[in-house]
Every structure is written in C-alpha cells, then in structure tokens.
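A quick aside before the break. I want you to see a complete sequence-to-structure record at least once, exactly as it would be stored in a machine-readable document. Don't worry about memorizing anything.
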Amino acid sequence: MTTPHDLPPDVRANLGARRLPPLRMARFPDAGAAVATVTSSLRPPGSVDVLLVNPPAPDGGIWIRSQHRVGRRSRENMIWPQVELAQMAALLAPDYTVAIVDAIAERMSWPEFEKLLDEKRPKYYLTQVTAPTLRNDMYGVFLAKSVGARTIAFGTHVTPMTLETMRPFPALDFVLRGEPEMTLRQLLDTLEGKSPSQPKVAKMLAETSTRPDVIPDPQRRSPLAGILGLAWRDGDEIVINPDRPFIPNLDDLPLPLHHLLPLQKQRMPMIKGPFTFIVTSRGCPAGCKFCIKHVTYQNTVRVRSAENILAEIRQLVDLGVHHIHMYADLFTVNRDHVVDLCRALIESGLRISWTCNSRVDYVDREMLQLMGKAGCTLISWGIESANEAILKRIRKGYRKEQAIQALTWAKEAGIKNWGYFIIGLPGETEETIKETIAYAKSLPLDIALFHIAAPYPGTPFFFEVVENGWFRPGTRWEEVDMDQSTVLDYPGLTAEQLEYWQKRATREWSLRPGPILTFLKGLNSWEGFKSAVSVGWQTLQFIRG
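That is the input. The structure line, written in tokens, reads:
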C-alpha cells in the first residue's frame, strides 16, 4: 500500500496544495441592519411611540427626581409626582401615542422594568437624569437602546454637563438642554415628519424655534442642526446647538395628563390620600448660589394665570385628587398672582387643601391670612442657616427676624411650617452649625429637615467649590447628593464632620416633645400611621447611621 510519504517530493507538494487552498480574505456576515429592521418594525400590541420614564432607584428605595430640582434619597418618605412627564405627554398627544412609567412610585425593580420595556417597545425613550443617579439612569437608557428605542435625556444634570454625559454613555442619542418641552416636540416632529395638531403648541414652537443672534452653520446639513436646545450625535461628533428661548406664556401649555400618573401611589407626609403637583410658575429672581434654578429656569419669572391654574385644579378634583402642592421655584414670587389665585379658589367653592414653598421675605401677614382661607395647610421655607454672614455669602438675602415673623404669621393663619436647613455652606464652622440648630429649635416649625450642602453642576456654588478645591478627591457625580457626606471637604470641616453634624441636628431637633407630638398626630388614620411610622423609622435609621 502506497502512502503519501512514499511519493516523490514534488508530487507530495502538489498534493498538499490541492488539499489546503490558500487563505482567503475573511468576510463575515453582517445581520445588524436586518436586526434593526426587525426590532423597529415588529412592535407588539400595546407598544407606544414615546415612553416617558422615571426609572427604578439605584438601591430600591424612594428617590426624588424633578425637572425643577435634583435627585436625592427621600428621608421624608415622599413620592414626588412626575408632573413634568405628564406635561410633556400632553404636548405630544394626540399626535403620538404616549405612556408614563414612574418606577419609583410603582416600586418597580430593574427586572420588572426590563420586562415592561419589552412590552412597550417604544420608538423613543425619554428620561430625566440627575447627578446622584447618573449611572443608574444611564442603565435604563442602555436597556431602551437594546430594544430599538432612540434615547433622550433631560434634567438639571445633563444641561450643564452635556458632553460629560454623552461621551461616556454612547447609548444616549439626544439631550434636551434647559426648558425641555418645545425642544422635545420639535425633535420628534423633525424625525417623524409631523406637525402639531394643537394650535397653541404650533404657536409655542414658532415663538421658541428661532433666535435673531443665531446664524445656521452651513457645514451642518442635518435638520437636527436647526433645533435650538438640542444636543445630538453627528457621526462620532457630539453637537450642542444654541440654547432655546423660554416659552413666553405658560398658559399656552396644555394641561398635564395627570391621569397617566399613579395618583394613588404619590404621597407626602402630613397629607392623607392622593396628592399631586401643579406647576404655578417658573423662575425665581433671588440669587441663592446653591440653587439649581440657575441651570433650568434662571431669574426670568413666568407665572400662570389664576384661571389657568384653576382649570387644572378642577381636572384633578374630577380625578379624585383633593390635595395639591403648588410646585414652583418660588410660589410667592408675585404677590398679585398669589392673591388672585387665592380669591379664585375661595369663590370656586372647590374643597381642596394645598401646600407650597416660600421665602420668609416674600410674604406678608395679609397674604398669609388669605392663603389660609383658600386652603393652604403647609408652607416649606428655605431657611438654610442662622448665621447672617453665611446667608450673605450665599446671597440668600433675608434677615433672621424676617423668618421668625413670617413663620409666626403662618401659624396665626392656621398654616403649618416646614423648615429646610443646609449644613456645610461656605463659611460654615462647628459654631455656626450649633447656632443653626439652636435657631431651628426656637422657630415655630412643625417639621425640619437638615441637608448637607450639595454643589450641583452649573450652580455658582459648584464653580466656587471647583475653584477652591473643596471637592473630596475621587468624588463621582453620583455622590453629589444632599444626603451624602463624601463630596465636600473644607480645610476646617471635613466630610465626616459634616455628616456627624447633620445627624446631630436631626436628632436634637426631632427628639423633643413638640416634634414627637406632630409625629403622633400623623397616626389618626391607617395611611397616616403607615406614613408616620415609615418617616420615624427612616429618621431613626438616619440618626443611627
């Protein structure tokens, strides 16, 4: 038997050549385009055009996110209504099918959320992003991208940190900078080739879509280049378009689609039953250096008419909601506006209770009496510090005697007082913290919360912290949170000391007969019992660390 080894060398060489063809250029199949087509076209029944999302929490707890404010854990066990999502949904309907998912209110886990994305299979995924929840929020963006959605983010973090958000998270397609509503509407209309069916929406688009000082870039041929307020991707480049003008008249906005929110699961301490927010105005003329309004609505103040707000209140009453928080950068910013609204409420005969926020130097006795008669039950006051040098440095701009006077007037009007204080503002020392604790205990407050100062990106406080090197080395954006201690490290007051004093302030204020009695009064119903016990337990855990 002859084997290959018995053959002559030249024959063996030819035989090997026939059996082993030369190495060819690799050409692997690319199914990506086909998969993208299947993902986008085979949408199941119940899918939507736009899914507006408040994603699950990083730790499964209750977190606060808001277009007006910032993200933080809720020590007060408060579930904030996602009214900004309901507002944007109203701008899109009926031209687009929309759905809102509030995973915080629904206590939804990430696996449950992922299943919901598969069911809804949205064409567009809209989410707000905050500094303390950045990576968590981007995980939701990643999941949405995996089911074929185009992803959009808005909020107080992505506006001042646009490039720093889009660069490390390539699953994010678009960012709506500043006031997001009209940028969102123009973006979707541009991508889908639609026009608004609501005349007032078309009017607002016309008013905010151009700027006389902006010259179109001839190098940008994409229609996305003409959308003011938008950040987008042009190939590998991130493009930030010029900023968008504010909506001139807030009455032109359609009323939010409150019925899409989980109204029965939104809750607030001291309130029994469902409640929600009504945005009464945007912007604040005050100059507080730490305030996030510097990023979104700034110093220009726009108020809604009393008639327009009353129409939204009637809508909510029809939905069974009788407890409302008048949600604004500063509710009492315009005295005439507050007086008109209160008189309209009294004349309407609507049986509602409502809460609001204020500064102590933006009220008077007569106005507070009228607010009490119109159903106001609680005001949250930004008091911040007892030290006037600190108040002046942060441009808070009120005098201590004004706080005592305003809170006393509110009590006389039958209105409860909720005080907010900040530990660790520039110029803080252990002595000034003690001063603030004593001051808080002397005020006629029903509730007091003490937060650690948070230098949110884009605020004047943030730039001051960067300039002075007060950020603790290794700080991540997820740690810029009013309830975290690992952000600020002053030369004479470390992060650990700030955390100690925050807990001590909470303990000293809470463990007194007055606050304990307020806690017990919350037990007059089953819902009140559950809420009060939850708040008490969270406070105890916080104090114990």
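Two observations worth writing down. Residues 268-450 form a domain with the TIM Barrel fold (CATH 3.20.20.70). Residues 526-544 form the longest helix (19 residues). We'll return to this after the break.
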